[in-house]
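Hey,
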Amino acid sequence: MSTSAPRIVAVDTYDIRFPTSRELDGSDAMNPDPDYSAAYVLLRTDADDGLAGHGFAFTIGRGNDVQVAAIDLLRPYLLGLDAAALCADPAALSRTLVGDSQLRWLGPEKGVMHMAIGAVLNAVWDLAAKRAGVPLWKLLADAEPEWLLSQVDFRYLTDALTPADALELLRRGKEGAAGREAVLRERGYPAYTTSPGWLGYDDEKLARLAEQAVADGFAQIKLKVGADRADDVRRLRTARAAVGPGIRIAVDANQRWDVPEAVAWTRALAPFDPYWIEEPTSPDDILGHAEVRRRVAPIKVATGEHVQNRVVFKQLLQAGAIDVLQLDAARVGGVNENLAVLLLAAHYGVPVCPHAGGVGLCELVQHLSMFDYVALSGTTEDRMIEYVDHLHQHFITPVVIRDGHYTAPTAPGFCAELRPESIAAHIHPTGAAWAADAKGLTE
C-alpha cells in the first residue's frame, strides 16, 4: 500500500466520435451534418482506491483533432500534482491554466484552449466528487458559501457582481436547502426535449416524436429553424397541432440570422406561440440580441451555448439582452466559471435553462442546475434542462428521465465517465464505428 500522498500520474486523452450525421441526429440550419464528438480526458492517480477523473469538451467532428491537441498541451501542468490538494481547491489549477500567457494569447479565455481548460477542470471536479463519495451537485450544494466563493474568478465581473454580492446570494441559498433537496430527490428537475425537432426530420417523424414527448411528461419541446421560412412555418404548424395549445414550443435558429432577419423570421412564427427564440444571431452580438428581444416581445430570447466566458454573459445580462440564460457545461472554463455564470444569473434574476444534448452534456449539466435549485436560486420556476434522447447508453451513469424530469444522480462524481467498450468502438479513426469509413479511404 502506498504511504505517500496520491498524485496525478497520467493524463490520457481520446478522440471519441459518434457518426450521428448518418441519421441526421443533431442537424440544424448551421450544422447540417454533425458527428457528435468528445475530446475526452482521463486523470489517473497512484492512489489505491483506483478513482480517476473524467472530463471532455464537446465538438461535432473534425474539430476534435484540434481540441484533443489543446488538452494535450495542458498535461505538464497536471502530472505530479497532489490529488487531495487539487480536489480541495480546483480554483488553484484554474488560475494556473488560465494564466499561462503563451496559451492565453490564443483566447484569452475563449475558444479551443478555454474549452480544453474546461475539460480538465471538469475532470478534476469529477475526481473531487468521487473522492468525497457524493454526486457533484451534492458536493456543491453542501459546500460552505465561503469555499464556493473561493472557486470563482471575479476578475472583470465586479462592476456587475462583487464577491460580497455573491456571498450574500450563496448564504441566502442555504436557507431551506434541505427541503429543496428532498423535493429534488423525490420529483427531479424539470426537462424539455429537443428530440422531435432536428431539421433533417420529416413532418411525420416530427409529429410522432412530439406526441411521444407529451406522453412522456415533457411540458416543452424545441424545434430547429432557420433554413427555409416556409418550411419552418409548416413545421411549427405541424408541431403545434401535434402537442396542442398547452405545451410550450421553443425554436432555435443556431445563429443563422442577422438582426433584421431574426426579427422578421421570428414574427412569422409568432402565430404558433413560440416560447423562446434561441440563438437568433451571432452569440457575440450582445446589442443585436438586445434589439431582437425588444422587437419580438413577448417571445423570449435565449442564448448561451456558444457564449465563450463569464464576461460575455455579464454583458448580456447588463444589457438586458436575454430572457433565458443557457449555460453550457463544456464551453467555458469548467465548473468554476459556470459557478460565476450561475451567480450572475441569480443576481440579475434571469432563469437558467442549460444547453444539453451532444455527447454527455445532459449528464454534466444536470448537476449544475440541481445545485442552483438546492443552494442558490432556490426555484425551478421557468427553469428546465434540455434533454436529447441519444448516446446516453455510452455512459457509466447515464441520465434518468422520469415523467419529464431529470432524476437526481446518486452515484459519486460528475456522471462524465464513458464505458470502456464505447471508447474502444468510437475512437477516431480506428474504432469499429469508423472502420468502414477508414476502409473506404484506403481502397
